[in-house]
Specification:
MFS_dom; 120 residues; mainly alpha; single chain; 80% helix
Amino acid sequence: MISCVIALIYYSILSISTESWQLIAAQLLQATYVAIVMGNGLSYFTDLLPDSPGLSTTIYYNGSIIGRLVGNMGGGIIAQYVGFRHAYLACLAIVIVSLFILWRTKPHVKSGGAVGHGTV
């Protein structure tokens, strides 16, 4: 979830930047985001499907390939017809949806106490 927050900041900067030094500085955020996602992506899918390590690896790998193909092609099409700034806004929208999906699929830890059940 931290990587989605970093990506949210990164794409926000890209969509409002006006100088090239801002884009260069934002690349540190992008490098951090990619390092976290690439390092923890497989672990995330393995945690979702602990009894099927082969299936989780396949889903991660195929999703990664499809995401790169569709992302590059979609970003190019958006940039071609409406400009780069709108491509960054589309990426920002995808990050927001991803953050929501991660929040919904993340196992929520309940507090361990039996508060209000008559225990002393």
